[in-house]
Amino acid sequence: MKDKIKILVIEDTHGLREVIVDILTFEGMQVIEAENGQVGIDKAKEHLPDLILCDIMMPVKDGHQVFHELSHNIDFKHTPFIFLSAKTTAENVREGMILGADDYITKPFQSDLLISSIKSSLKKEADRKESLKQSFKTL
Q1: pLDDT tens sequence across 105-133
Q2: Structural domain span for residue 101
Q3: Could you give the number of structural domains in the chain?
């Protein structure tokens, strides 16, 4: 039996975090929760999630700091990372994408958009791994 997909949700607003957990759990995913950026980094290192969904404006460490720290760690170099933020200007979105995030979802969001973004990011990473595997087979 295939293991459940592990999603790390880093969101400081408790109610919103619970809604996201419910949505992802309903989709059959295993969810790890973190209430701020530093806890998120610690839980990422502990659980090695398949994807990270991260708010930007948070106490302790913000989402950009989380992304920067984890993206420079070899264990997370290819882990899909999606920003979820109330910062909705085109400049905000562009900044997140320039940093290297896989996607940027603005709040409030629709659950089907969240799920499709997660599935798309996971598929892209699975395709990258498969392509790498095929490259090694031809050597």
Answers
A1: 999 999 999 999 999 999 999 998 888 88
A2: 6-137
A3: 1
